[in-house]
Design goal:
This is Histidine kinase. Pfam families: HATPase_c, His_kinase. One of its GO terms (molecular function) is kinase activity. It is built from 16 helices and 17 strands. The chain has helices spanning 2-13, 18-83, 86-93, 99-108, 111-118, 145-148, 151-158, 199-206, 282-330, 334-391, 393-411, 414-434, 442-460, 486-497, 531-542, 552-564, and strands at residues 122-129, 140-142, 163-168, 174-181, 191-197, 212-217, 222-225, 248-252, 255-265, 272-279, 440-441, 464-470, 480-481, 505-514, 517-524, 570-576, 580-588. A hairpin with a 4-residue loop joins strand 6 (212-217) and strand 7.
Length: 598
């Protein structure tokens, strides 16, 4: 029965011309399949994109929770540490004869200063005490009747554990603070610790341009928002209808936003911070994705219809030619039939040519992949050489610095050693951070030079004098250069340029701009370099050796600059015997978009 119906269908199709048959087949074969596949793609892409936005929103909430946990945990640990501080307990329970005696005792207690210097998350630290002999000085303040009547003070006296509250400042902006009573056994005095979280610290760590964030402690008004004018007010995100614990689309002033609500219980099991994070771009992007895919499906339908129409006309024309060829063959006109055959031979030739093109393309792809592999190997080899050369400076400088610190430890007091170690730590931090990076700001490079010069002045005293000048048209924060370029030049001027002189040495650094290039000049008033040694030095820096022990910095800098910027950049050395030496380095400003490193 099915076979008969199929034959009947094809018999009916044969009643139409071939062009009409193609258009009849277009509807079920092309149109319906394209629409079905398009709808499936739209649905699947929208579902995947929605899932991605939900996942990103949840990750952002987890990030915020992690930051808040670290911050509150830092406050809790600080409060716990101060609660167990015996020196602080003695200070709070002492009976001072006058304010001066109390101030001297307070100044000798440096634990609070250390906490303020190390904990950047703390905006204010205050200890309120009922000890009348302690004046309002530094971190200590008298707990008068007004303060003792406050809710937070009364709660601190009743609750031994630390707790969080949000308190309005003079400018009506809520600030998150931690309160904890400091135990004073065997004393009638009381003391309450207040630690206020720095709003800017939270803003720097929590701000994300893709999300709007509001934080709320318990049922209080919000204490943090990306829009600072909303702090201390009921949150806009909290007013949305029934936010879920997971990401969901909710309406905000007629527009849909993806809102994520998450909670962070505090260690005292009483306070809870609620996190509201909204992605205002998610719904708009999903709608744009829907429009984009719908447009693609529509374009495909129109394109396929045009293609079917053109192909139908082309195919019917070939059929007509075939009919003519058969007609002329029937009347034994083989020349025309041979022309048709010739067209068939051209089709075969095009097929063979297509096979040849495919083989050529395959060979070219293999050659291209081989060249890419060779170029990648060359790049890795150059990067290894770059890292080796960049690493030669640090041990040499570190050895001299440590030797300076060792000698100072034998001949001077501990305060100088501490200062020297501090400078060394700054220098090592810059070196470690610069290692592996391709560029740094001019300002950071100059800071490293200042640290190095301070270390050398500790070693040589007034024998080393340094000054520098930077052209006004150079923005030190915006200008980008390779790391570890300027310090080796200054180091070479101090270590070699001023070597052996008996009069005060002077090193001057000058940075000017020449078009898109930077010209860095380091001058010293040393004894200079003899012509034969100068020529030898100029040749030496052109071919740096990983086994060299002298002039490592100059050779290193010159080689790195030429590898990165190109052969037209690099070092030049000029010296006049008895007058000093000048080293000039020309590089390109990496902040210029038009420049492409080699």
């Amino acid at each position: 029965m099915k076979k008969i119906s199929h034959l009947s269908l094809f018999r009916r199709l044969s009643q139409f011309s071939i062009r009409r048959q193609l258009f009849i087949l277009y509807l079920p074969v092309v149109f319906l399949s394209t629409v079905t596949i398009g709808l499936l793609l739209v649905y699947d892409s929208t579902k995947q994109l929605t899932g991605n936005y939900q996942h990103l929103a949840e990750l952002n909430a987890q990030r915020v929770k992690s930051v808040l946990f670290d911050t509150t945990n830092t406050l809790t640990n600080t409060a716990s540490s101060l609660s167990n501080d015996t020196h602080l307990r003695q200070l709070l329970t002492a009976n001072y004869l006058d304010d001066q005696e109390a101030i001297v005792d307070i100044n000798s207690y440096d634990q609070l200063d250390e906490i303020r210097n190390l904990q950047t998350s703390i905006a204010k630290l205050t200890i309120y005490t009922t000890n009348q002999t302690i004046p309002n000085y530094k971190y200590f303040q008298q707990a008068d009747d007004t303060i003792q009547a406050t809710a937070w003070y009364q709660r601190a006296l009743k609750q031994p554990d630390a707790f969080l509250m949000t308190m309005p400042e003079d400018y009506k902006a809520n600030r998150l603070s931690l309160y904890k009573t400091l135990p004073l056994p065997l004393s009638k005095e009381t003391a309450v610790l207040e630690i206020q979280v720095d709003y800017n610290y939270l803003s720097n760590r929590l701000r994300n341009s893709s999300y709007e964030l509001e934080l709320q402690l318990n049922d209080d008004v919000i204490f943090y928002s990306d829009k600072i004018n909303q702090v201390g007010e009921p949150g806009q995100l909290t007013t949305l209808s029934e936010p879920q614990t997971s990401a969901a689309f909710l309406k905000d002033d007629g527009t849909k936003v993806m809102l994520t609500k998450s909670t962070l219980p505090m260690s005292n099991k009483e306070d809870i911070i609620t996190i509201y994070s909204a992605d205002t771009n998610a719904y708009r992007n999903l709608r744009a994705n829907l429009i984009r895919w719908s447009t693609i499906v529509l374009v495909i339908l129109i394109t396929t219809f045009i293609i079917v129409f053109l192909f139908a006309r082309f195919f019917t024309k070939r059929i007509s030619q075939l009919q003519q060829a058969v007609y002329f063959a029937s009347i034994e006109d083989y020349d025309f039939f041979q022309n048709i055959s010739g067209e068939d031979e051209i089709s075969q030739i095009s097929l063979d040519f297509h096979k040849i093109i495919q083989r050529i393309k395959k060979k070219e792809e293999e050659i291209y992949r081989s060249r890419l592999a060779q170029q990648e190997l060359l790049t890795q080899q150059q990067q290894m050489e770059f890292n080796i050369l960049a690493g030669q400076i640090n041990p040499h400088f570190l050895f001299n610095t440590l030797e300076t610190i060792r000698m100072m430890a034998l001949t001077s007091g501990n305060s100088d050693v501490v200062y020297a170690i501090k400078l060394l730590a700054k220098s090592m931090r810059y070196t470690l951070e610069a290692h592996g990076t391709k560029r740094t700001s001019l300002e950071e490079s100059l800071d490293a030079v200042h640290v190095y010069v301070k270390i050398q002045r500790m070693r040589f005293g007034d024998r080393v004098n340094f000054s520098y000048s930077v052209s006004n048209e150079i923005d030190q924060k915006e200008v980008q250069i390779l790391p570890l370029l300027i310090q080796p030049l200054v180091e070479n001027a101090i270590s070699h340029g001023l070597e052996g002189i008996t009069y005060p040495g002077f090193v001057r650094l000058t940075i000017t701009k020449d078009g898109h290039d930077l010209v860095i000049v380091v001058q010293d008033n040393g004894s200079g370099i003899p012509p034969e040694k100068l020529e030898h030095l100029q040749q030496k820096i052109k071919t740096p050796s990983t086994h060299a022990k002298k002039n490592i910095g100059l050779a290193n800098v010159n080689h790195r600059v030429k590898m990165f910027y190109g052969p037209e950049y690099g070092l030049t050395i000029e010296s006049v015997l008895g007058s000093g030496t000048q080293v000039t380095l020309r590089i390109h400003d990496l902040s210029q978009d038009s420049f492409s490193p080699r």
